[in-house]
Amino acid sequence: MSLMQSPLDSWLPRLPLGAWTESAVDWATGTLGPFFDGVAAVVEALVRPLNDLLTGVPAVVVVLVLAGLGWWLRGWKFALGTAVGLGLVAGMPYWEETMSTLAQVLVASTLALLMAIPLGVLVAENKRASAVARPVLDLMQTMPAFVYLIPAIFFFGIGTVPGVLATLVFSMPPGVRLTELGLRQVDKEIVQAAESFGAPPWMVLLRTKLPLALPTIMTGVNQVIMLALSMVVIAGMVGAGGLGDVIMFALSQVEVGSGFEGGIAVVILAVVLDRLTDSAGDRFPSARAQRLARQAA
Amino acid sequence: MTLKRALALTVTAALALGGAAACGEQDDASDNGKKITIGYMAWDEAIAASHLWQDILQDKGYEVELKNLEAGLVYGGLANGDIDLFLDSWLPQTHASYLEKYGDKLEKLGVWYDDASLSIAVPTYVEGINSLADLAGKAGSFDGEIIGIEPGAGLTKATQEKVIPEYGLDGKLKLKTSSTPAMLAALDGAIADKKPIVVTLWHPHWAYAKYELKDLADPKGTLGQAEQINTLARTGFGKDFPEVTAMLKKFKMDGEQLASLEDLMFNTHKGDEEKAVEEWLKANPEYLNTLS
């Protein structure tokens, strides 16, 4: 790497940003070791049983359960589509990898949402928190996904745990943003009405704002799951296993066939999860009320 | 609605029960402490040797997991104990930097292949070029390109930093990096069309069995001397798995054995490594006896 010489060189000090980051990570690996071990144990305790469950039962059971969910949430057409799509995946040699990818996505996105939604409420209610959170969220979303893997390896070695945690960090921001957006978009007049009945602020939040913001929050949930799915594949690079592993191997061997099979499995998983979370948001009473109001208008 | 709910509940209950049963089985398998993780990067001889040993050890009753990672991560994994075994350590040169960093956290179990070397090769029908020194004058016939492999490979580094400057190829031939399979695809295509091509390659490789190739002489020694492929294990592996360690210390392969295994794995049974290993072991029935 040759650095360009420019007249500004003497004016601009060379910031040892990389060195600082390295020493920060070094310090964290040493000092926070027990904490990271605890985190790793928790993630392991969540992923492993779910992974064993999904890979342990016959594929046909998983297909039926997801199709049943689809039937309940969206209707028989979608159920049929789910059954056909997942049936196709089950017919390929990568069912087990697909299920462990699903397990990782479910754990990572659940953990991400457990942090993202309360954070979203906080930044919606608090202007200062919002100002602080915005640049941090921007950084989280624009940082190239691969970069998250590097500290993850340092803190958690290789395997499923660093993969899930890098996925968690990568997929969190839309959950925070859309929760904030949903709460800010709630009609001021309705909030005022609630307040004029003497409802305390937490009651207004719980009984008025959150229900009305739910459809937007569910969009956030959906986005988190989609991002998690894309990251889990990248996490194949650090030995997280699952479809990422299949795709990485296909890439390094340039095996078009198995790469495509792995890719299609990801696509089908994504479509099913996307539609399921999408329709879950429409089932809340508040969403139904809003739909009826729109129809009446 | 109620019918659907009932159905969903029934199926979910079935799933939960099945899952519980599966968990019960899982525990039995992982309790006996016979799980071995083999790390490998997607180099042909690494894939071949790792799958061979997976087969051998599974027959002995071990649970073997293969993890495909970049070389740096394999060494890191060995050093912190995430990975038990690594069968494709190129020493003394190619992997020297990793050994420097992690050498004190590894156990060396010996050399299993001792004639590994980097090369720059052309098909035999390319005439008038027998040495790297001949390339500078003929750059035009190769479209100004040496077809290389992965950007991070030691072979790429040696070609870029030693071969090109020392044989005066700067500005005449560029090293085009992509991936090993892409290089092999380019080689295959050029040979099919009888076109001149120059590639970075190495021994052991099945390409030498499949095509008529010649290595270009390297009078300046830019590509280094022949290397050895070593078996490495994490610290403490020898104590935890004495039986496996004893077998691994006896592990040896000659050029022909490895080339035939790779040919089965990457050409005949592409995508089905297990089948390739089984077939190779059938064709070499005496091989397993050399390990005990």
From TrEMBL, chain A:
Keyword Membrane: yes
Coiled-coil zones: none
Domain ABC transmembrane type-1: 98-277
UniProt key word Transit peptide: no
Domain of life: Bacteria
Location(s), subcellular: Cell membrane; Membrane
Pfam families assigned: BPD_transp_1 (PF00528)
PROSITE patterns, sorted: ABC_TM1
Family: Belongs to the binding-protein-dependent transport system permease family.
Descriptive protein name: ABC-type proline/glycine betaine transport system permease subunit
Organism whose genome encodes this protein: Micromonospora vinacea
UniProtKB/TrEMBL annotation, chain B:
PROSITE patterns: PROKAR_LIPOPROTEIN
Entries under Gene3D superfamilies matching the protein: Dipeptide-binding Protein, Domain 3, Glycine betaine-binding periplasmic protein, domain 2
Keywords: Cell membrane, Membrane, Signal, Transport
Domain ABC-type glycine betaine transport system substrate-binding: 34-282
Signal peptide annotation: 1-22
Subcellular localization, as worded in the UniProt entry: Cell membrane
Any matching Pfam family: OpuAC
Residue ranges of coiled coil: none
InterPro entries according to UniProt: ABC_Gly_betaine_transp_sub-bd
Location (main, coarse): membrane
CDD domains in the record: PBP2_OpuAC_like
The protein, known as: Glycine betaine/proline transport system substrate-binding protein
Organism whose genome encodes this protein: Micromonospora vinacea
Organism phylogeny: Bacteria, Bacillati, Actinomycetota, Actinomycetes, Micromonosporales
